[in-house]
Design a protein that fits this description.
Layout lengths: L8 E5 L5 E6 L2 E8 L1 E5 L4 E4 L11 E3 L24 E10 L4 E4 L10 E4 L3 E8 L5 E5 L4 E3 L9 E2 L1 E4 L4 E7 L5 E6 L9 E7 L3 H4 L31 E9 L4 E10 L6 E10 L2 E7 L1
Parallel strand pairs: 7-10, 9-17
Antiparallel strand pairs: 1-4, 1-6, 2-3, 2-5, 7-8, 10-15, 11-14, 11-16, 12-13, 12-15, 16-17, 18-19, 19-20, 20-21
Bound molecules: copper (II) ion.
Copper (II) ion binds next to loops.
């Protein structure tokens, strides 16, 4: 059914009645009085109507195109994360309508690498729709904060319609750990137009490097206590690291520091030079 453009998106109106939109995707927005609104698969709108006459009213849901109403939405509360995005991910919604195959950046889900996001970061996702259909794109686990103009009242959505040949941006605060599904909500598009979002956690030392690039942080990195062999059950082993780390590119951190093995005796001191790609230790050189 969704092969026919317009069949899974509706413009809803009730002739003779104004409607007041009070929430979008379960998030309160500043009430707006409208004559009609567009709704797509998986989106929700909370609408208040106040019939004044004692008569029957008709709700029309028409699969036709009018202008998008996202620009009219303003979150009722001030934006919870006012940070500007630290980086941008641009994704093209792609597909072949005659063969009915769908993909992101030309790659279908089965062949795709997960989208990696860093826990704690604020990023911008820009979706570019290279197809001739609408796609309601649903991000699980994390909110899609639509960049619609007023940064103080950015509306939060979990599903965002991307119109044919158009482009839309939203901000995401990566604040929920896990592996999340990110996909078009049209059933027949889902198998291809789908990505896994995988979160990686960085140690807090890396998180604000951009804000303060010269800042060094000392990390007590590792304190391991393990049981020793027979005869000395309380023996322990500890390793202490004091590291300075600095971002040398968006994805690379350089670490310099000292490492000390407290046990077993004698205590040994090491100089540490490491390179970190996201949260992955690439190489550590001890001296
Ligand atoms: Cu789709």
């Amino acid at each position: 059914m969704d092969g026919v453009p317009g069949m899974t998106f509706f413009d809803v109106r009730i002739p003779g009645l104004k409607m007041t939109v009070v929430a979008a995707d379960g998030q309160y927005v500043e009430p707006i009085s409208i004559d009609e609104f567009r709704i797509g698969v998986a989106e929700t709108y909370d609408v208040i109507v106040e019939p004044k006459d004692d008569r029957a009213y008709t709700i029309f849901a028409q699969g036709i195109w009018t202008t998008c109403t996202y620009a009219d939405l303003r979150h009722l509360h001030t934006t919870s994360d006012p940070r500007d995005p630290e980086r941008e991910i641009e994704l093209h919604l792609t597909g072949n309508m005659s063969r009915y195959m769908w993909s992101i950046n030309g790659v279908k889900f089965a062949d795709a690498e997960p989208l990696v996001m860093k826990y704690g970061e604020r990023l911008r996702i820009t979706l570019v729709n290279d197809t001739m259909m609408n796609h309601p794109i649903h991000l699980h686990g994390l909110w899609s904060d639509l960049e619609t103009g007023d940064n103080q009242h950015i509306p939060r959505k979990h599903t965002v319609i991307v119109q044919p040949g158009s482009k839309i941006s939203y901000r995401v605060t990566v604040d929920a750990k896990g592996r999340w599904a990110y996909h078009c909500h049209l059933l027949y598009h889902m198998s291809g137009m789908f990505r896994e979002v995988r979160l990686v956690c960085l140690k807090p030392a890396f998180a604000d490097m951009e804000a303060d690039p010269l800042l060094s942080k000392l990390m007590i990195d590792k304190l391991e206590i393990s049981e020793a062999d027979e005869g000395n059950p309380l023996a322990w082993e500890a390793e202490l690291q004091l590291l300075y780390s600095r971002a040398i590119s968006p994805y690379w951190d350089l670490q310099l520091g000292w490492r000390g093995d407290m046990q077993p005796t004698p205590t040994r001191n090491w100089a540490v030079i490491s390179t970190i790609y996201w949260n992955k230790l690439v190489k550590t050189i001890y001296d």
